[in-house]
Amino acid sequence: MSKTEDVLRSPGDKLIGYFPAGFPTLPESVDAALAMCEAGIDVLEFGVPYSDPVMDGLVIQQATELALENGFKLNQLFGAVQEITSKTSTPVLVMTYWNPVLQYGVERFARELVASGAAGLITPDLIPDEAGEWLKISDELGLDRVFLVAPSSTDSRAATATELSRGFVYAVSTMGITGVREDLDELARGVVGKVRKADPDKFVAVGIGVSTGEQAREVNDYADGAIVGSVFVRAFQSGGIAALANKVRELVAGLNK
Q: Which residues are catalytic?
């Protein structure tokens, strides 16, 4: 069982928090990630800035664009992750589009990921059918691999993504891009249902649109965790690390009501 699965198996509702590497600078993103861990997230998603973030909403797009403008390079990722994992026991999953991994070299990326102490990868634009090299090396190295299941996924495709995911399955709550929504789409329950049908024992977390403690608690009623991103980035934009940590504590308190 992976470290991520160990955490998700433990009692209580779970909060998975996203923050982009290199935003606004690499040292600040490391400090922000550590502050989130200290404030109570259960799993950290550390996002790789990418020039064509097709799944990301405006808040995250602007943050990753700034990271790139400020000089973020992919080879800086592993040192940043290592700094985080050396100071916290919170599992760290790197979230990345697949092209940067291909350009870097899949095996090279995977081995440096292991050396950094990361638990594995979330790959939003990689489907299992095209993931042969990643499946092989992640099995060899014991890395988590989180695939996405969307409302549009057929039962067959959802079953394949569920079977091949390790750590958890990422249930996309809406047919759209990431961002804050007032109401969580009811489609989320249907997506989680597809995963449960494929494998009742597989962990599944819901992301895209979760923005309040109440929503995160609601998600935990039928899934194994809530994934929050844009709200945390926006909090940092408005008030730095102090505001970010307060927002994490606010959502954690909402979970524990």
A: 45, 56
Place of tokens 């996309």: 172
Q: In this structure, how many other beta carbons lie within 10 angstroms of the beta carbon of residue 220? A: 18
Please list the ranges in the chain whose pLDDT falls under 70: 53-56, 174-185
Interacting residues of 95 by C-beta distance below 8 A, sequence separation 6+:
18, 45, 46, 47, 48, 121, 122, 123, 124
Helices (H), the chain: 3-9, 26-39, 58-69, 77-85, 98-104, 106-116, 132-141, 155-164, 187-198, 213-222, 230-255
Q: What is the dotted CATH code of the domain comprising 3-147+224-255?
A: 3.20.20.70
- C-beta pairs of 74-77 under 8 Å, 24+ apart in sequence: 74/48, 74/100, 74/103, 74/104, 75/104, 76/21, 76/22, 76/26, 77/21, 77/46, 77/48, 77/116
Residues 6+ apart with CB under 8 A from 102: none
Q: What are the residue ranges spanned by the domains of the chain?
A: 3-147+224-255
Q: From residue 156, how far is each of 38, 130, 191 by CA, in Å? A: 39, 15, 13
DSSP 6-45: HHHHSSS--EEEEEETTSS-HHHHHHHHHHHHHHT-SEEE
Instruction: Report the distance separating Cα 30 and Cα 77, nearest Å.
Output: 10
- Say if residues 17 and 46 touch (Cβ distance below 8 Å): no
- pLDDT, tens digit, for every residue of 93-137? 999 999 999 999 999 999 999 999 999 999 999 999 999 999 999
Q: Return the SS3 of 206.
A: strand
